[in-house]
Amino acid sequence: QAGVFTYDPGFTSTASCDSTITFIDGDKGELLHRGYPIDQLAEKSHYLEVCYVLLYGELPSPAQLEDFEGRVTGHTMIHEQMMYLFRGFRRDAHPMAIMVGVVGAMSAFYHDSTDINDPWQREVASIRMIAKMPTIAAMAYKYTIGQPFEYPRNDLDYASNFLRMCFAVPAENYEVNPILARAMDRIFTLHADHEQNASTSTVRLASSSGANPFACIAAGIACLWGPAHGGANQACLEMLQEIGTPDRIPEYIARAKDKDDPFRLMGFGHRVYKNFDPRAKVMKQSADEVLDLLGVEDNPILQVAKELEKAALADPYFAEKKLFPNVDFYSGIILEAMGFPTSMFTPIFALSRTVGWISQWKEMIGDPQLKIGRPRQLYKGATLRDYVDIENR
Ligand code: SDX
């Protein structure tokens, strides 16, 4: 059909590519990062160690991990002049709009690390992106709620730093709850990379022209924003809020099954997983832990989510269509319980996925065979014809 990508398998690029970073088996519900299963990484590792695995291919030694974490920690602040970029937005701007703009603008501030032909500058750009995304996401949030920016603190771990930059205010002392920090870190890990999804393919296509990494990551953020992709966690929670009570679930199940109704169950289905999404399993366990800790296990949204999942999985239509909860189904519930507005769900997904985009970028940009991505098409428009002057039309 029109627009179907056909591609020349002779070049490393974007319509299809070789990669050694992430493997997905959609039928088995398997997700491996450099061969390590996602459930083991989520349980035994932590986000910055997973970043190291994605970037360099192996689990780090203690010394390598300490050095890597030190390099990331040393780049968590953004150029002071960048603060003015936030102030150009209206206060009601969506934080994703701010992130697209501010990350793209990094090209103008960190041009000394954008010579993509220099492996060392590729390394510096990678570290800067991973280090600064939490700061930018937190500042986008603070700006939209009218609170002062909080600077990063280098004595805190990655997830704790982000939570503090989002929820601390100068007027009060703020202590990060370690269980919430662990849940936040696990959300980062579960979203870190996912093979050639739409936003990663966007980053690869943009990068294949030789554009600088910050502009290419901004393109990935823009693509992730869509409700069929990273915007699904926000759309899912808003759907659960709209359903409101379990007795309204049958109405929404019927709509999702109605061919003439464009409504989709947000948080269900996947382009690749035709069985369960292994990340959703871990996320569901995290949701129970966080809601139990916060004493909100009877959270009405969670009740609707659990009843909706039960109803959908019991319905032959969804089993036949192989539609199961995906990573976005439970992440929104956890983030809402932590106190984030739905508008911050996709920025947190973007923050988490930065390491995946950067790892895939580094893998591709380092390939001497790289050619610019140029997907082809099946043309189905008008055949050759002559121009007709306007007086003869
Ligand atoms: C992410 O690619 C990635 O890796 C993405 C991601 C990542 O980590 O980067 O995993 C993150 O984007 C997860 C997906 C988040 N999106 C949502 O939760 C939005 C709701 N889901 C749908 O929009 C949909 O499931 C997609 C876009 C995710 C997949 O769409 P497809 O490729 O059409 O799914 P499919 O081919 O398996 O669909 C089979 C059938 C189709 O009906 P028929 O044409 O066969 O009649 O099921 C229908 C679909 O229309 N269907 C749904 C549905 N998803 C698919 N019907 C109701 N509700 C849904 N959610």
Automatic annotation (TrEMBL):
GO-annotated biological processes: tricarboxylic acid cycle
GO cellular-component term (any): cytoplasm
GO molecular function, a single term: citrate synthase activity
Keyword vocabulary terms for this entry: Transferase, Tricarboxylic acid cycle
Annotated metabolic or biological route of this protein: Carbohydrate metabolism; tricarboxylic acid cycle; isocitrate from oxaloacetate: step 1/2
Catalytic activities: oxaloacetate + acetyl-CoA + H2O = citrate + CoA + H(+)
Active site: H270, D328
InterPro entries: Citrate_synth-like_lrg_a-sub, Citrate_synth-like_sm_a-sub, Citrate_synthase, Citrate_synthase_AS, Citrate_synthase_bac-typ, Citrate_synthase_sf, Citrate_synthase_typ-I
Entry similarity comment: Belongs to the citrate synthase family.
The protein, known as: Citrate synthase
Organism for this UniProt entry: Roseovarius marisflavi
